[in-house]
From TrEMBL:
This is Copper ABC transporter substrate-binding protein. Keywords: Plasmid, Signal. Pfam families: CusF_Ec. Residues 1-23 form the signal peptide. Gene3D superfamilies: Copper binding periplasmic protein CusF.
Length: 107
C-alpha cells in the first residue's frame, strides 16, 4: 500500500506543476511582445536613459491610460529630437518591471 501511495504521489506531482510551467511560458511570450502606443512626453532624463510618457490606453496589456517611465538603450536622433510636450508614437517590450523602448517617433 505504501508503495502504491508513493507511486501515485510521484506520478501526480509533475502534473500539478504543469499549469505553472505553461503560465510561465505564456508570460515569457507576452513579455517579449512588441507593444505599440501613443502619448505625450512629460519628462526626459538622458542621464538615466528614461523618458516619461503620458500614454493612452494599451488594450494589448489591459493597461489604462497612465503616465509612466520607459527606458531606452541607445540615444539616437529620435531620442535627441524629443521635447517635453511632444506627441509621440512608440513601441516597447516589457522585461519584468522594465518597459524598454524599441522605437519612438514624434507625431
Amino acid at each position: 500500500m505504501r508503495k502504491f501511495i508513493n507511486v501515485a504521489l510521484f506520478s501526480i506531482f509533475p502534473l500539478m506543476l504543469l499549469p505553472g510551467v505553461q503560465a510561465s511560458e505564456q508570460h515569457a511570450a507576452i513579455a517579449q511582445q512588441v507593444i505599440n502606443a501613443s502619448g505625450v512626453v512629460k519628462q526626459i532624463d538622458l542621464v538615466n536613459k528614461k523618458i516619461t510618457i503620458a500614454h493612452e490606453e494599451i488594450p494589448a496589456l489591459g493597461w489604462p491610460a497612465m503616465t509612466m517611465r520607459f527606458t531606452f538603450t541607445t540615444q539616437d536622433d529620435s531620442i535627441n529630437a524629443l521635447k517635453v510636450g511632444s506627441p509621440v508614437s512608440f513601441s516597447f517590450i516589457q522585461q519584468g518591471n522594465i518597459s524598454l523602448l524599441q522605437s519612438i517617433n514624434i507625431g
